[in-house]
Amino acid sequence: xxxxxxxxxxxxxxxxxxxxxxxxxxxxxxxxxxxxxxxxxxxxxxxxxxxxxxxxxxxxxxxxxxxxxxxxxxxxxxxxxxxxxxxxxxxxxxxxxxxxxxxxxxxxxxxxxxxxxxx
Amino acid sequence: xxxxxxxxxxxxxxxxxxxxxxxxxxxxxxxxxxxxxxxxxxxxxxxxxxxxxxxxxxxxxxxxxxxxxxxxxxxxxxxxxxxxxxxxxxxxxxxxxxxxxxxxxxxxxxxxxx
Lengths: 119, 114
Description:
The complex is a heterodimer.
Chain A: E1 4-7, E2 10-13, E3 19-25, E4 31-37, E5 44-49, E6 56-57, E7 65-66, E8 76-78, E9 87-94, E10 109-110, E11 114-118
Parallel strand pairs in A: 2-11
Antiparallel strand pairs in A: 1-3, 3-8, 4-5, 4-9, 5-6, 7-8, 9-10, 9-11
Chain B: E1 4-5, E2 10-14, E3 19-25, E4 32-38, E5 45-51, E6 56-59, E7 62-67, E8 72-77, E9 86-93, E10 103-104, E11 108-113
Parallel strand pairs in B: 2-11
Antiparallel strand pairs in B: 1-3, 3-8, 4-5, 4-9, 6-7, 7-8, 9-10, 9-11
């Protein structure tokens, strides 16, 4: 059973506000990820982290920032929200290597997502 | 340039019949493939995976087939149940990059009719 949590689940906010989307996992996973997804579209990776104090930009450019000062916590911040930021934000985590039969692969476990609407 | 494609946006199947969802990829470095299921307003849930050293992996009602030469994989659900109605995402990973990053397709919405 995957234990990864996101808050808030839904957020409606005005343009220009600063927001932080929370993501926490209790599985002790090293790798964590943030995706952005719009209806009918693929999930786009916007940030990822290999562990504490490690953060990298993903494949899709994003104005958001992330931090990883604790293994279990990977918050995403938007300094000034705009309508173009309206989307679903999904957080995921996975183990660092150690997959089946010693393979480097591991599935990612996802949180329930945050649906952000910027007016 | 989309590296993972699910060309069918939607699929409708009768309960009890087989559902076949397809996925194509372009990057020959991909060597691990996954299927996720997603309900509205929820995060994706891992279903089944396959590495490139295999051509088939089975888990209960779900079977994934991989055709490396065609760069194609498919998910078979037999028998289909109304609770299977959801969006299904195909994803791929390049193990040599050691990043664990997944590249997702656009998803296929499956509707299973009672």
